[in-house]
Amino acid sequence: MEINLIEPFWLAVIGTSLLAFLLKILGYSVPKKWLSNPRALKINSLIPIALLSALVAVQSFTQDSRIVADQRMAGVGVAVLALILRAPFPVVVIAAAATSAALFHIG
Amino acid sequence: MALPHRGYLGQNAPVSRVNRATAAQSFSVSLTVGAYGIAFGAASVAAGFSVLQSCLLSLLTFTGASQFAVVGVLGAGGSALSGIATATLLGVRNTLYGLRMAPVLNVRGIKKIFAAQLTIDESTGVALSQENLGVREARQGFWLTGIGVYIFWNLFTLAGALGAQAMGNPAAWGLDAAVPAAFLGLLWPRLTNKSERLLAVAACALALAMTPYFVPGFPIIATAVLAVIFGLRAKIWK
Q1: pLDDT tens sequence across B156-173
Q2: CA B83 to CA B75: how far, in whole Å?
Q3: pTM of this prediction?
Q4: What is the ipTM of this complex?
Q5: Where are the domains of chain A?
Q6: Among candidate residues B80, B221, B190, the one with its CA nearest the CA of residue A55
Q7: Chain B positions in Cβ-Cβ contact with residue A59 (cut-off 8 Å)
């Protein structure tokens, strides 16, 4: 089997995996004081919130660099409702999928 | 007579025994979190990754949020570099977990490599929750949870990827909404106060506002700047 590294999907798989491992091993390899600045720790804890929020927005409301409102919006709305009601993760995802799929077939 | 105190490294404890409560917690966390893998496998194939590539991401990257991010960015038409950058930013916290776990696990050589690969939210979380029972339990919690999540996460990734491949059009099955819902499920427990919720709303707004004007993927990474701004303004409790 031929693996073309320049192909973006392969590049993403290998690049992400390599850097993820480097970040993990780094924690076991550097003196603790290097990474204990409280300000840096705070920023680090906020980065997932910003990136995950952006991913939710982009995946829910955009299509080919345009802002759109389609069946996904309803699905994600139902997911928000499920999360407010403290539903477990599989329920959240399945409720979102079912809503979106239903609207896809109606529309 | 007082009971012999369990030593710092658990030398006084029976060596072969695995703490039942630790094992039970590790198993339940492993199975629950591993099941997320089905959503990842499906999302990955829906984004255009092959089943093999999806499985390799789970085997090699093995850190959920980063994996979801890279398939999310490429699925939205972003470049490999945008995807790698977003995933890598999300992986920085594993470095901090490693720093925390290093003195607990005290590993060298090949064991250090395995420990590093298994260092994720869940293994660290369970280990730290067992620390009050002793270092031995903390170590057991780390290894049992890390290995457990690894096994289930990879099995469920394969199942999700094969399932999505059999489905055809992802939108017909609602997979296009399941992916952002999965992100939302990862995000939700992190929103514990007003300023974090404000950051989430600001990041959504910025990413959407930038989307028409920038290459796909870039608006997502750009929101890291908001995290820096919010972090610089935040009060620090020591």
Answers
A1: 999 999 999 888 787 888
A2: 9
A3: 0.78
A4: 0.85
A5: 1-32, 33-106
A6: B221
A7: 72, 75-76, 176, 179-180, 183
